[in-house]
Sequence to fold (267 residues):
Amino acid sequence: MSEQYVLETRNLVKEFKGFVAVDDVNLKIQKGHIHALIGPNGAGKTTVFNLLTKFLIPTRGQILFNGNDITALKSAPIARKGVVRSFQISAVFPHMTALENIRVALQSFEGNSYSFWKSGASLNRLNARCMELLEEVGLAEYANTTTVELAYGRKRALELATTLAMEPELLLLDEPTQGMGAEDVDRVVELVRKAAKGRTVLMVEHNLSVVSKLCDRITVLAQGAVLTEGDYDTVSADPRVREVYMGTDSSGERGSSSEASAAEAAE
Fold:
């Protein structure tokens, strides 16, 4: 594998009792890029994510990270290598403060997550780093706010901060703008752009406006296989993509009703 690729899949396949959910997928994720996986409902995007992070076991194929075969590794060792994932739904502790949520993530990263006998005061040494991460995602003023009291967009920002606490080299974002209004979407776009500095990002995203603003490269999946790949202009102009995902508006803009319907139905 070329040194420019942080992640590569080779002929990745996932079958479920004869149904092929991921069909011979070959990805090459370039270091420093924001790379998107898009496609219609059932295209296999989230299944690919689950394979990369070993929530599912590949039927065949290889996954390489920085040139090393990680196909046989389990989820925790993969995360420790620097492949860290967020999920479609907010995955934070609702009755802890924003700062406490990040402190739990830092404990986990340090391997201290099960040291329940330690006093709370002993964890205060992590607070400075917690505040740095909260500042990075624009939540410093909410450090002592109970998470359940945060607006949805801020909860997703907090989840991003807990993900960054794991110091990822490759950040996997699964539908980061799912369920958000326009204002929150714009905020998350800027957060992802900031988080991508010095990192590589692979994201599943249904909002094509977000993809066009953020992503260096896009892979389109259809029926579990790679349909095409390229930058946004190339992909949006491909008639096969318009047919299976974006509708038939030759402009490639998100405004057409057929494209909007496909986008909102996507995984």
